[in-house]
Amino acid sequence: MNIIKDQTDRSLNIALEGRLDTTTAPQLETELKQSIGDRAELNLDFAKLEYISSAGLRVLLAAQKLMNRQGKMVIRNVNDVISEVFEVTGFSDILTIE
Amino acid sequence: MKELTIDATIENAAAVTAFVDGQLEQLGCPAKTQMKVDIAIDELFGNIANYAYTPGIGAVTVRVEVTDDPPAVAITFIDRGVPYDPLAKEDPDITLSAKDRQIGGLGIYMVKKMMDDITYEYKDGQNILKIRKEIW
Question: Three-state secondary structure along chain B?
Fold first, then answer.
């Protein structure tokens, strides 16, 4: 998985490419921990993300909890399979997907 | 039928996925079906890698079988680790808010929802976990 990062004082924008799974989820977790700081906006672009397993959901849930306290998190460009993962797990009610 | 026997470690998850994907591609399996199968592999192989032989390392055999009518693929994971029936676990509450959410059990729940069938048996000292997914 590739992580493409672009940040300002206020926002952190991350685009993911590949698969967010057991092997790669720790990469995203580490990147978020290092980069988010006290930024009020976290934007995740999934245009080039193929799929997410529960290991990836765990990282997204932790990020959502953090951003609920300090600002907002938005996920964009979700494909059909990822959309189905969010639906069956109820994550579509927790996350903001545009 | 094709089989791959490999050490059950997280580092080998990509090799197992590639082994199964190679056979799905030969069948002309649609990308969406393949991605759902890949998610199931990540959940099931990941569980075996994390828990079956802890703290040691052991092998897992991944068997891929194709049936015709209707076109479907069956993938069986066989390990000799501690007996563990993932289907015995209660389904998680997927209606809770972010604050109250627990992540445990979500992986196997996703597999149940995204595959057409999942069965478990413990036989001759082996955990035998089988999923089936129709290709179209």
Answer: CEEEEEECCHHHHHHHHHHHHHHHHHCCCCHHHHHHHHHHHHHHHHHHHHHHCCCCCCEEEEEEEEECCCCEEEEEEEECCCCCCHHHCCCCCCCCCCCCCCCCCHHHHHHHHHCCEEEEEEECCEEEEEEEEECC
